[in-house]
Design brief:
By secondary structure, the chain is mainly alpha-helical. The protein has 7 helices and no strands. The chain is globular, with a radius of gyration of 20 Å.
Length: 162
Amino acid sequence: MFLSRMFNSLSMSMQEQYKIELLDMNKKTQDYGLILNLEDVELLLAGRSQVLYSYGRVELSIEVTKELIEAFSTSSFIQQENYANTLQELHELFYYLKNETEDRISDRMLMSRMKEAFEEDCEGSLELAKSRLEEYAAEFRSSLQRNEMLQEGEDDDWDRNI
């Protein structure tokens, strides 16, 4: 019981630290006209927790959130009115893609591909970006399967040569 209270206390203090870190990101994003208020940050963290839970994932920091903010705050397609909601959807898309690519793609590479799709291919359309990125994930998985099958085939050849 004492351990449970201690864990909850630690969890609550981490949430407060996360809020401070995300509010500090406003220093970087305000040049682009994008600001998260405390309510936005709280909703973003709650949404992040829900997405992590729904995909069965555990994150011990908010680095992904901060990297999403940094990467997408420069977009000319994101306005203050849709900023918090867009970040929520990007969170969900990011973790969906991490699962779909079996965590075999780095966070940075995935974010880069997401930004490229959002900015260049889809001109700011999240729906179109989701569709394109789902295709990308399917191609990525297919490529992984082909490579694994080739490697298994090489192992079979090696066994026969003994």
